[in-house]
Amino acid sequence: MSKFLRAVSLLLALGVAAPAVADDRPAAPSFNLRTLDGDRVKLSDFEGKVLLMSFWATWCAPCKQELPILQDLLNRYGDQGLAVVAVNIDDPKTIAEVRRYVKLKKFTFPVPLDSDSKVLSSYNPRVALPFLQIIDRQGRRVANHTGFSSGAEKALEKEVLALLAEKPTEKAAP
Length: 174
Description:
globular, two-stranded antiparallel ribbon
């Protein structure tokens, strides 16, 4: 028997497993923004949850198509660990319009304000809208979607369900 096979046999006999494949999901950039309600919201507030982070503006028609779908997903899967944040990038002069729209649509998710688009550009340097970032329970970027097309909600729901089904990883002891 070769030395390699003997070494592998010994490791298996001792119950030593091969190291897990490193997860290649990059960490999501942190943020700290004030919401329409005046509260502060930051990425760490959603630790342990699957987060759908949408960047939108009131002048963006596809954004307005996407937001009700995100509210529907939150209504259906919020109790399973889904969270939604809709980061608005409108000019500060139009915040009253943003507030009216959110109230009219009865959105229950936080709406942080990113009027200088600094947070958007950290997630999406092209600054295209709508832009949806999907973040896993550990605060890592899983996928993103630029633009919106009718029918995309089914694929998004599958992505959400797959992430909700993942077992949360335990943090290493300090």
